[in-house]
Design a protein that fits this description.
The protein has 3 domains: 4-126, Rossmann fold (3-Layer(aba) Sandwich), CATH 3.40.50; 137-298, 2-Layer Sandwich (Dihydrodipicolinate Reductase, domain 2), CATH 3.30.360; 342-404, no CATH class. It has helices at 13-24, 26-33, 63-67, 85-94, 104-120, 137-144, 159-171, 175-184, 193-196, 199-213, 232-239, 302-317, 375-384; strands at 4-9, 37-43, 58-60, 74-77, 98-101, 125-126, 150-156, 243-254, 257-268, 280-287, 291-298, 342-347, 368-373, 389-394, 402-404. It contains 13 helices and 15 strands. It is of the alpha/beta class. The strands form 2 sheets. It has a 9-stranded mixed β-sheet, sandwiched between helices. Strands 3-2-1-4-5-6 form a 6-stranded parallel β-sheet, sandwiched between helices. Residues 136-314 form the Homoserine dehydrogenase catalytic domain. Its EC number is 1.1.1.3. It is an enzyme of class 1 (oxidoreductase). Residues 10-127 form the Aspartate/homoserine dehydrogenase NAD-binding domain.
């Protein structure tokens, strides 16, 4: 019986992790799949550098050499950025290869097109590793919650930002000090923009939106804020009232519209994301039958990501959920946001009076005001009170100084 031939595109942390996992788990893979799994080819930038790759494996810097191989069953794509990954995957699908990818930016933009192309060529795409590393959120949504109507998904989808916020709180570090620590430990890149400005979490959220709701909101309608403006003083201040900062990505379906956001959020102790610390990722799913379930695990790194990709390898080969079944839900586009009220904490750094609110219920305490308002109202208040900070609050909070905004 012939073996299963795999090609790996890219040999950074993720690609190398997949290669090592396949080699160290050969017996287990053969027991599950009934055939041996062999890495037949690896696409690499410098093919002359010694990487400890088996001599029987084709090591090349030319993707065409891989396509010319007599047999490739699965292509594992572990390249950063949209191109050339998007082009390579299209060509591999057309050749009849199953695809496994960890490329969240490329997949968030081109996922629907690639799924359609894969269905036309009778192959599957595994993309579990695009969202939360070792946390099996996509398989959960696709296979375990078929009957449930998903109401809302919210989670910590970026381990780097979560580590920085955790270090700022636990060790009273400044943002720059915590970022430097993350870079020294290998959690943050030399250019950490994608992580700390919320782009990484945003791409992952768009992928989850497709799976949960069959479509995405217009990207320009999704508020995206990073964590660079959070100060150690703010973190210590909100901790006194039982809150912690987390970079929360949230998506929900409200009256036929998909509403999403990625931003620093205050989480109370009663919320399941409160105790997610360090580089951990966690996703909370709210279904109409099951209620709320929360998944937690390592969100990045060589082995957690490799684990997700190798699990995907098994799913696509044993006839897991086919690509043409993934987006059967009707696409729901976004129009003008509904006035969904949320709980917000305004942190007022000085003695200036809050503009736009005429009456308070109770007195202000330590320059904090708890508000119940919709996105549009908060946006207006931010413009009128640029010296103040506004953060959404998740979970229960017993706070008497509050005002309800009805506008």
């Amino acid at each position: 019986m012939s073996s299963i031939k795999v090609a790996i595109l890219g040999f950074g942390t993720v690609g190398e992790g997949v290669y090592k996992t396949i080699n160290t788990h050969k017996a287990k893979l053969e027991a599950v799949l009934g055939r041996k799994v062999e890495v037949a080819a690896i696409l690499i930038k410098n093919k002359y550098k010694n990487r400890g790759i088996d001599k029987e494996t084709l090591v090349t810097d030319d993707f065409n050499e891989i396509l010319k191989l007599k047999k490739i069953d699965v292509v594992v794509e572990a390249i950063v950025g949209q191109e050339p990954a998007f082009t390579y995957i299209q060509r591999a699908i057309q050749k009849g290869c199953h695809i496994i990818t960890a490329n969240k930016e490329m997949y968030a933009i081109h996922g629907r097109f690639l799924q359609k192309l894969a269905a036309e060529n009778n192959v599957s795409i595994g993309f579990e590793a695009t969202v939360a590393g070792g946390v099996p959120i996509i398989q959960t949504l696709q296979q375990l919650l078929n009957i449930n109507h998903i109401v809302k998904i919210e989670g910590i989808l970026n381990g780097t930002s979560n580590y920085i916020l955790s270090e700022m709180r636990a060790r009273n570090l400044s943002f720059n000090e915590a970022l430097k620590s993350a870079q020294e430990k290998g959690y943050a890149e030399a250019n950490p923009t994608n992580d700390i400005e919320g782009y990484d979490a945003f791409y992952k959220l768009m992928i989850l939106s497709e799976i949960a709701f069959g479509g995405k909101p217009k990207w320009e309608n999704v508020p995206r804020e990073g964590i660079t403006a959070i100060t150690a003083e703010q973190i210590q201040e909100v901790e006194k009232i039982g809150l912690r900062f987390k970079l929360i990505a949230s998506i929900q379906l409200v009256e036929g519209e998909i509403i999403g956001s990625v931003r620093p959020t205050l989480v109370s102790e009663q919320h399941p994301l409160y105790n997610i610390e360090g580089v951990e990722n966690s996703v909370s799913i709210e279904g109409d039958i099951v209620g709320r379930i929360t998944l937690q695990g390592p969100g990045a790194g060589m082995l957690p990501t490799a684990s997700a990709m190798v699990e995907d390898l098994i799913h696509v080969l044993v006839g897991g959920k086919k690509t043409n079944d993934l987006y059967q839900k009707s696409f729901v586009g976004t129009e003008e946001d509904k006035k969904i009220k949320q709980c917000w904490l305004m942190i007022q750094p000085g003695e200036a009076e809050l503009k736009g609110v005429s009456t308070f219920m109770g007195s202000e305490r330590d320059h904090h005001v708890l508000l119940e308002a919709d996105e549009l109202t908060i946006s207006t208040l931010r413009k009128e009170n640029h010296w103040a900070s506004f953060f959404e609050v998740l979970g229960e909070l017993n706070y008497k100084d509050s005002v309800r905004l009805t506008s």
